[in-house]
From TrEMBL:
Signal peptide: none
UniProt entry tagged with the keyword RNA-binding: no
Gene3D superfamilies, sorted: 2,3-Dihydroxybiphenyl 1,2-Dioxygenase, domain 1
InterPro entries linked: Glyas_Bleomycin-R_OHBP_Dase, Glyas_Fos-R_dOase_dom, Glyoxalase_1_CS, VOC_core
Protein name: VOC family protein
Stretches of the chain forming a coiled coil according to its record: none
Keywords tagged on the record: Metal-binding
SUPFAM superfamilies, per database record: Glyoxalase/Bleomycin resistance protein/Dihydroxybiphenyl dioxygenase
VOC domain span: 6-125
Length: 130
């Protein structure tokens, strides 16, 4: 039997590394990590205060996604501290999103696309009540 300790990293394919780095650093606020000298372009990022990471890999092949956000499609999720502040930040940055404050998941969710159409879920423990 396997004993899973947690997720180490998620890898995403990107086409333009600089464009993706701008998105993940400026919009999501991720901090870049040192990366081994692979024979392909990419970047590694720390996620939160854990040892979890996001790896970007430059890939010139085709992807499956061509349209808008479909919340049933493959994605990864990041927990945010404030749903309301996340919406305000995305609005300020001009990022289009799909908001599901009262979805069936039991916690509020926001779905966005990165520059390469990778779906990212941003969710909070609870919805702030004004």
């Amino acid at each position: 039997m396997l004993i899973i300790e947690g997720i180490h990293h998620v890898s995403l394919n990107v086409r333009d590394l600089r464009r993706s780095q701008d998105f993940y650093e400026r919009i999501l606020g991720l901090q870049e990590l040192p990366r081994p000298a692979f024979d392909f372009e990419g970047a590694w990022y720390a996620i939160g205060t854990t040892d979890q990471q996001l790896h970007l890999i430059v890939y010139k092949g085709e992807t499956l996604r061509t349209g808008e956000v479909d919340t049933k499609d493959g994605h990864f999720a990041l927990r945010v501290s404030s749903y309301e502040n996340t919406q305000k930040w995305l609005d300020q940055c001009g990022i289009t999103y799909t908001a599901k404050p009262y979805g069936k998941a039991g916690f509020p969710q926001i779905f966005i696309l990165d520059p390469d159409q990778n779906i990212i879920e941003l969710n909070a423990e609870r919805l702030e009540e004004n």
